[in-house]
Hints:
52 residues; mainly alpha
Amino acid sequence: xxxxxxxxxxxxxxxxxxxxxxxxxxxxxxxxxxxxxxxxxxxxxxxxxxxx
Length: 52
């Protein structure tokens, strides 16, 4: 019997290092990432050849 597995990968975004960016600017970037998460995921999948 052959099994099937499905894995869901979620894109995560977080700051690894900050060199001089203000907290206000970081919050702006974070807000924009969350507001446009669907578009970012779509473009990520297009670039990496994922059909889902």
